[in-house]
Design a protein that fits this description.
With 495 residues, the chain is an alpha/beta fold. It folds into two domains: 278 residues, Aldehyde Dehydrogenase, Chain A, domain 1, CATH 3.40.605.10; 181 residues, Aldehyde Dehydrogenase, Chain A, domain 2, CATH 3.40.309. The protein contains 13 helices and 22 strands. Helix 3 packs across helix 4, helix 4 runs parallel beside helix 5 and helix 9 packs across helix 10. The radius of gyration is 24 Å and the shape is globular. The termini are far apart. 54% of the residues are buried. Bound molecules: NADP nicotinamide-adenine-dinucleotide phosphate (NAP). NADP nicotinamide-adenine-dinucleotide phosphate binds next to helix 7 and helix 8.
Length: 495
């Protein structure tokens, strides 16, 4: 049974409460937290600010629901995910407007994210009924029959960032529910509304109480640490910064909680002399400007062959300089605000540091007048390799260009980072394309492509960009255990 609190704000159409065991409830101490519109700096909503006890209650609800959800036929789990997919698609305009309001991305991009987010629900609805597939075999000595059964890992804690408020949620909820796991979702405090709207959809398409619990909070550590240390969380799936990922790995260690980590990136974008510059520039705009540069997959370090660097930089500057910087709801908006004041200040400081070290500003390099946390699209050339922005996720609309002449040198430079999420390579030589793809220390490569993510393919990084993969056929494995059942081979009884 779903009990809606009578203070549901119909106008905003999102219940600003915690979803625990199928009930929408206030925070235990009645606290709320503001959600700000980064385009205006205004508070658009107050939502419940969960306490540690609320987190515990949410996990208790997930634990209580685990057995029956795991026993629910895969087809029934699949049907619920499929209905959620259909509802998300039907609600595209509303969900996109929510994300634009709380996160800032232009409406057109927000609609794109709704489609992307929904695809994870559809993909994992399809995967739910194909889990079976464990081995049934004889051990090599012939003495035993061995069955490998794939079972849900159990209650999961899902922690998501603010930059893709809906898609980072569905990328975890989809496979977890498909696998038969119950979950507690803790979205980022800047963008709780999309998660609450998604949770509401799940309650309306028949998801049993307690299978999906949502805890919005500004007290992340207070809420999460005891859950991780307590022993009931069987899986932590985290998307966020590498710094926080390290902390959570430590907290997960005492109870040996399985973890998936989708962490930060420092993507190289390499343009060889023989690249198709039209393709390279188009892809650079996508890889740099998607989500205002606030993406883990954002091109962070541009390495352009000396012979084409000036042409590439000039064309990129022209493209970025003509983009419309405006609130995400404005007609034709292409570049919304950054998430908050400190993020904009960080970007501005990175640009200043690069300029002090000799970088040239081709376009941008400043913030427009007026309210909101906007930063103008920026192209820097002559970037010194020691500049802070080569060793930091810029997370803003700044393209920092270095040049190279030697293929081995550029691969070494590209790999000279603790991160390894994605790399982009532009060349028309297939042999070079493959050799460089193989040499890059990353989990994903865009070959003459500026976008790599797709729900049907595995997404994730190596080195300090993460552990595990989301999406694709392997995405559901993160939420499954392989249980071995051994049956000795004995002669049948007489008679
Ligand atoms: P973040 O600061 O690491 O926060 C991510 C989430 O973790 C938020 O919900 C945050 O809540 C929570 N959190 C922070 N400290 C915590 C703690 N001690 N205990 C429990 N939870 C804690 O990252 P962000 O600024 O939201 O997002 C940007 C980062 O995410 C970037 O580094 C980006 O590259 C990465 N990212 C990676 C991927 C990927 O798939 N690899 C995708 C998208 C984003 P609070 O804010 O309340 O602390």
């Amino acid at each position: 049974m779903t009990v809606l609190d009578d203070r549901v704000d119909v106008a905003a159409d999102v219940t600003p409460l915690l979803l625990i065991g199928g009930r929408w409830v206030d925070s235990g101490d009645g606290a709320t937290m503001p959600v700000e519109n980064p385009a205006t700096g205004e508070v658009i909503r107050e939502v419940a600010d969960a306490t540690a006890a609320d987190g515990r209650a949410a996990l208790d609800a997930a634990v209580a629901a685990q057995r029956s959800w795991a026993a629910t036929p895969a087809r029934a789990r699949s049907d619920i995910l499929r209905r959620a997919y259909e509802r998300v698609i039907a609600d595209t305009d509303r969900l996109a407007a929510i994300m634009t309001a709380e996160m800032g991305k232009p409406l057109a991009e927000a609609k794109g994210e709704v489609a992307y987010a929904a695809e994870f629900l559809r993909w994992f609805a399809e995967e739910a009924v194909r889990i079976g597939g464990g081995d049934f075999t004889r051990t090599p000595d012939g003495a035993n029959r061995a069955m490998v059964v794939r079972q849900p890992v159990g209650p999961c804690l899902l922690i998501t960032p603010w930059n893709f408020p809906l898609a980072m949620g569905t990328r975890k909820i989809g496979p977890a529910l498909a696998a038969g796991c119950t979950v507690v979702l803790k979205p980022a405090p800047q963008t709780p509304l999309a998660s609450l709207a998604l949770a509401q959809i799940f309650t309306e398409v028949g998801l049993p109480d307690g299978v999906l619990n949502v805890v919005t909070t500004s007290r992340a550590q207070e809420v999460v640490e005891p859950l991780l240390r307590g022993g009931d969380v069987r899986k932590l799936s985290f998307t966020g910064s590498t710094a926080v990922g390290r902390i959570l790995l430590e907290q997960a260690a005492p109870a040996v909680v399985r973890t998936s980590m989708e962490l930060g990136g420092n993507a190289p974008f390499i343009v060889f002399a023989d690249a198709d510059l039209d393709v390279a520039v188009d892809s650079a705009v996508q890889a740099k400007m998607r989500n205002m540069g606030e993406a883990c997959t954002a091109a962070n370090r541009f390495f352009v062959h000396e012979s084409v660097a000036e042409r590439f930089a000039g064309r990129l500057a022209q493209r970025l300089g003509s983009m419309v910087v405006a609130p995400g709801t404005a007609e034709g908006a292409q570049v919304g605000p950054l998430i908050d004041g400190p993020s904009r200040e960080k970007v501005a400081n990175l640009v200043s540091d690069a300029v002090v070290r000799g970088a040239k500003v081709l376009v941008g390099g400043d913030a427009p007048e007026g309210p909101g946390y906007f930063y103008n699209p920026t192209v820097l050339t002559n970037v010194h390799p020691d500049s802070a922005l080569t060793r930091t996720e810029i997370f803003g609309p700044v393209a920092a260009i270095q040049t190279f002449t030697d293929s081995d040198d550029v691969i070494a430079a590209a790999n000279d980072t603790e991160w390894g999420l994605v790399g982009y390579v532009f060349t028309q030589d297939i042999d070079r394309a493959m050799a460089v793809s193989e040499a890059l220390e990353v989990g994903m490569v865009g070959l003459n492509a500026g976008v790599v993510s797709n729900p049907a393919t595995p997404f994730g990084g190596i080195k300090q960009s993460g552990l595990g993969r989301e999406g694709g056929r392997v995405g559901i494995d993160e939420f499954l255990e392989h249980k071995l059942v051994v049956l000795p081979v004995r002669p049948p009884r007489e008679g």
